[in-house]
């Protein structure tokens, strides 16, 4: 397991689920929730993939966190949106692209994915890619527990994670978002440098807190306060992702509105799997459809 602390609430709107309302990763224990957790103890966390073989033409390369990873334990029996999108593109173009899914199931943050690209292990894949899909940032949302974050709180339990989110100030959100945005801009620049003519599609992050049972159990006042923080952070992150994507000539696909409504506060519900973090089959289908709508085959 890469870290014994709780991951940000990206694939984990339920602490204890990737994370549960906050991906509670306690000393060797993975909890799902509002942020992405590491792989279960019985299964080693996936290391950053290496892609060194010569890629075929028409390749679809996927980079990022566990949202596109499609781990069996996240959504048993599901067809992930990456493979579904590739199949739909194949039907439209008369031949499906070969998929190299180099996403990670280890709680990767934007900085981790940037480091993966800078190491050069995905250079060959990027050079041969017709399309690159990037999913990054889910694990950089509140609560900001990382030592380098501008505001840090205790997040060793679901209750502490919720308390930390509620205490997060607008100033903290702005500062933390700016810091992650700088890494994200560098990540996109590195991808574009290695794939100058490739179609780049980025995904924003959805809200896995609203509707999370641990948060609902705190009552309407705490639930509303936490949602205010989460939605503000996700909206700022969406704006940052889309602006930086446009700067490199890519296409930004928003998932906040499709999963959580125009105000970002509608519970994702059946769009999320049992961990209330990763997409369910309905959620995978929704992401596939959003990808197809944004980038007509």
Automatic annotation (TrEMBL):
Leader sequence residues: 1-32
InterPro entries noted in UniProt: SGNH_hydro (IPR013830), SGNH_hydro_sf (IPR036514)
Region (Disordered): 35-58
CDD domains (UniProt xref): SGNH_hydrolase
Keywords: Hydrolase, Signal
SGNH hydrolase-type esterase domain ranges (all copies): 62-285
SUPFAM superfamilies registered for this protein in UniProt: SGNH hydrolase
Presence of the UniProt keyword Hydrolase in the record: yes
One Pfam family cited in the UniProt record for this chain: Lipase_GDSL_2
GO molecular function, one term: hydrolase activity
PROSITE patterns assigned: PROKAR_LIPOPROTEIN
Entry superkingdom: Bacteria
Name of protein: GDSL-like lipase/acylhydrolase family protein
